[in-house]
Each structure stands twice: as structure tokens, then as C-alpha cells.
Amino acid sequence: MFSKIFSKQNIFYRAIEIIQDTYSVILLSLFIYFAILFAFYGFRLISCNKIYYAAYSNKWYTMNPKVAEDLLLIMTRGSKPIYLTVGKVCPVTMATFCSLIKTSLGYISVLHTARR
């Protein structure tokens, strides 16, 4: 009776190890993928300040006053940089992504060394 219980328990533990090994790789790859994705588009949003200059370089002073007023709203909104933030604390840029990867690899190195 106990041998059946132990054999089933061993099968259960092996199945759990296989699932954990599989999902840890998948979750790590998903984490890296989404981190790169958010950092890339965050960088694109920050570097996309050409709307302000494009609206200003128009001959807005010769336009219809309503159109000039709309351009003024575009210029006012375009003068403030747009950021994706992490919890409204720090912007998501390529620099923050690189520092996150650098810190994570440092922690992984320490954990790997401590495990041996």
C-alpha cells in the first residue's frame, strides 16, 4: 500500500518538475519579449516630438483663425513629452530596459554562483 502511494507521489513530483521547467522557460521568454516591446514603443513615443515642430513650421499665421487655433492646441499638446511609465514612477525607455537587464543578469549570476 505504501509503495503504491510513494510511486504515485514520485510520478506526481516528476510531473511537477517537468511543468515547472517548461513554464519557467516560457515565462522568461515572454517576460523578455514584453520588456523589449514596451521599451521599444516607449522609446518611440519619447522620440516622437516632431508633431510640435511640424505644426509650428506651417504658415499658421496666414491660415483661417479656427485652423490656427487648432494648430495652437496641437502645438501646446505636442510641446509636452509623452512617456510610458512604470507605476507613474519612472519612464520606460531603452536606457531603463538596459539597466533592468543588466541588474537582472547580475542577480542571476549571484544566484547561480550561490547555488553551486
UniProtKB/TrEMBL annotation:
Give one GO biological process term.
signal transduction
* Location of the protein in the cell: Cell membrane
CC terms in the record's Gene Ontology section = plasma membrane
Q: GO molecular-function annotation terms?
A: odorant binding; olfactory receptor activity
Which Pfam families does the annotation name? Answer: 7tm_6
Which InterPro entries does this chain map to? 7tm6_olfct_rcpt (IPR004117)
Q: What is its main location?
A: membrane
Regions that span the bilayer? 21-43
Provide the membrane topology annotation. Multi-pass membrane protein
* Keywords for the protein's UniProt record, in alphabetical order: Cell membrane, Membrane, Olfaction, Receptor, Sensory transduction, Transducer, Transmembrane, Transmembrane helix
Name the PANTHER family on file. Answer: ODORANT RECEPTOR, ODORANT RECEPTOR 19A-RELATED
Please give the name of this protein: Uncharacterized protein
Organism expressing this protein natively: Cardiocondyla obscurior
